[in-house]
Design brief:
Elements lengths: L8 E5 L4 E3 L10 E6 L2 E2 L8 E3 L5 E3 L8 E9 L2 E12 L1 E7 L4 E4 L4 E3 L2 E5 L3 E8 L2 E5 L5 E3 L6 E3 L8 E9 L2 E12 L3 E4 L13 E3 L2 E3 L6 E7 L2 E2 L6 E3 L5 E3 L10 E7 L2
Parallel strand pairs: 1-8, 10-18
Antiparallel strand pairs: 2-6, 3-4, 3-7, 5-6, 7-8, 9-12, 11-16, 13-14, 13-17, 15-16, 17-18, 19-21, 20-25, 22-23, 22-26, 24-25
Organism: Mytilus galloprovincialis (Mediterranean mussel)
Pfam families: I-set
Protein name: Ig-like domain-containing protein
Length: 267
Amino acid sequence: LITSQIQSQYFRDFGQSIQVDCQATGNPSPTITWYFNAQPVSSVANNRLSVTQGGSLKIENLELSDSGVYQCFASNAAGETKVSAWIKVDQSPPMFISSPLNLTLVEGADARFPCEVSGAPKPVIIWKKKLDNIESEVTTGGRYQISPTTNELLIITTEPSDSALFSCNASNSQGSIYAEATLNVYQRTQITQPPLAITEVEKGSVASLQCGVSHDVNVNITWKWYQGQVELNPSDRITIEQDGTLTILSVYSSDNGVYKCQVLSAG
């Protein structure tokens, strides 16, 4: 008597594995024999297919040729019984579960591009980088890391030179797909020429305080100047130049104080 609950049909994707248990009771203890399309499994030239000591059928890394009818026979001196099961190996083209999205970052931040794909056989994933119409394959190394399990592309401590169009390309025997995302990495805005610690001018003359900045050409910046805690607004005496220089005409004694330059930008 076969005691295992064997389904009449099993559906699995290409590349998956399957185990079908076949246990039987009887006196004397029955012998378990598996057949594939009417041939004993033991005679099938397939090292991915095996029968365990407990009588279970195991097939590793399923292929299309594994589709068919499998029969488990349990026999002893008292007789024989069997059950049959049909195993169908399916194929499917690649489909995105998650795909990369456009990113805009300031240099130094990490960039992560997901690329999770389903499909049978298991799709092959290739990352590519395109800059100035020149495309190259991205592989793991240095600041670029590709997860072997999720296919996520990680760029560690991004630099402006990382700015490019990245694409995740997935393919198997059933088709191919790709998804693109743009990475923009902006240079970090920095004050490179702060105001002098002490600036001395004569009363009634012109005072100029510089605030030089390095920044990404794609990023708009705005300067703000403060005298103490009070923000200075342009007037007939006070001007904030396009390069951030603060110019004060006809300085008074009331202009004495501590001046602070603040630069605002997206980066």
